[in-house]
Each structure stands twice: as structure tokens, then as C-alpha cells.
Request: fold
Amino acid sequence: MYLQDLESAKIKIQKHFAKYPQASISAMFRELRKSQSICMFGDYSLIRLIVSTMQELGIEVRKRPLQRAIQQSPELKGQKTLPRQLLNDEMAVGYNTEMPSNEPKDGKTTKASSQGGNAHV
Reply:
């Protein structure tokens, strides 16, 4: 059985942006979408891979060029918060395996109140 993954796409992105650090995110996105073996992963996966690979290479990912690439996707077009999420790494599924802590930052513990809500002690 043959499994598909995005490793070939990542290598292609790394080579392209290593050679052309000022290259267009949109052009790279269009090139990946044309590939029969890569386009099946969906537009979000491709854009997420481009952003994370550029960040790994130390290349600044600016919001406006990222928005232009997103607008080329019928799946992602119109999602206003997506560039911010990608740039802030808010949706880095698979990269951060640590579960977030529900502990308050001020050191106080929280107990359920009989009237509803939470009471700090």
C-alpha cells in the first residue's frame, strides 16, 4: 500500500524559497495545486505547509502576500482570520503535542461555586 504525504511538497518549497527568498507565496501555492499528487491534501494543508516551511527557513511571512494566496483558493477565500492564525501559529496541529494547562496564571486555584460560575480561593 502506498501512502501519500506532503514531504515532496515540503522539499519543493524548501528548494524554491532557499533559492528565491523573495518569491511569491501565491505562485508557490498555484504550483503545488497543479500537482496531481499534492493537490489532494486540500488548500489549507498546502498554505499551512508553505507558511511553516518559510518560517523554518527564517523567511519573513508577511500578511498581505499571504492574504493574496488565500484569496486564490475557493476553499479558503473570505476567511478573514486565517492569515492571523497562520502567522501566529494558532492552528499548528501536529507541531505542539503539549496539552494546554487550565491553571490560572496568577497561582490561584478555582473551585466550582454552588451559585454557578467559578470562585477564586
Notes: The chain has one domain: 7-92. Strands lie at 110-112, 118-120. The mean pLDDT is 78.
